[in-house]
Amino acid sequence: MELLKIDNLHKTFKKHKVPAVSGVSFSIFKGEVLGLVGESGCGKSTLAKLILLLIGADKGSIFYKGKDLLKISHSDMRKTRKDLQIIFQDPYASLDPRMKIGEVIEEVYDIHENVPKRDRKNKTIELLETVGLGKTYLNRLPSELSGGERQRVGIARALATDPEFIICDEPVSSLDISIQAQILNLLIELQKKKNLTYLFISHDMGVVGSICDRVMVMCSGKFVESGSYEDIFKNPKHLYTKTLLESI
Fold first, then answer.
1. Which of its termini does the chain have fewer beta carbons within 10 Å around, N or C?
2. Phi/psi at 97 (nearest 5 deg)?
3. 247 pLDDT above the threshold of 80
4. 132 φ/ψ sector (left φ>0, alpha ψ -120 to 50, else beta)
């Protein structure tokens, strides 16, 4: 089933003459892990923000379950937003340093009103245990956690709305190699267990190859190549893709 369809999406920022995203079109199917790979500045994170309506598109359509998110009402988008979540690249910058971990997650319930107040603490503990932490983390501050632990909190927060689709925006790039493997294994486990759909963004072809079913290669705001993991890795056609593979 086609879960998300992007059609001819464009975005140019006023201070830049070159488009950040230029005529991008693709589909993501339910339960799929779709990789988006390219160097820093190629437009990957801009595309992620466009999909989640964190920034506005200049032109194009974003269909989620057949509904164009750029044309639905604010109230309908508010209801839909809980289904679409993101895990950010920097787990420290994405957490409020003044908030305890339990508060970080419970804030999601306040916004989306998806968990009764009497159940929120137990739900939070359950989420922390799901990502390999536990109730001992409820009253800790982000500064007391390691990078890997902070990213697990970010994953728990993304899961707090019971989403169908999660954008993983360079979720392991700021972590040590050994911790990267742990977080990738956790994401794979959660994807299978909860039948989640991921758009997995990275600049590292090796990381993308370890988790993704299909891969799209982005350069200067456009897709230059796409295909299955095997096609892209064994028979790359575009020079830019070959360069990325050589950098592994």
1. N
2. -65, -15
3. no
4. left
pTM: 0.92
Crossing angle (nearest 10°) for helices 120-130 and 147-159: 130
Give the chain's length: 248
CB 19 within 8 A of CB 60: no
User: Residues of the chain with pLDDT > 70: what percent?
Assistant: 100
Two structure tokens written together for 46: 């801009």
Closest by CA position to 84, among listed 127, 120, 48, 130 = 48
How far is it, in rounded angstroms, from Cα 87 to Cα 155? 6
Mean pLDDT of 201-227: 90
Instruction: For 225, list phi and psi in degrees, rounded to 5.
Output: -165, 150
The pLDDT of residue 175: 86
Q: Give which of 60, 64, 6 is closest to 36, Cα–Cα.
A: 6
- Indicate the residue type of 144: E
The identity of residue 187, as a single letter, is L
Are residues 121 and 102 in contact, defined by beta-carbon separation less than 8 angstroms? yes
What amino acid occupies position 79? K
**Model confidence at 47, in pLDDT bands (50, 70, 90)?**
very high
Confidence of residue 109 (pLDDT cuts 50, 70, 90): confident
**pLDDT grade for 248, boundaries at 50, 70 and 90:** low
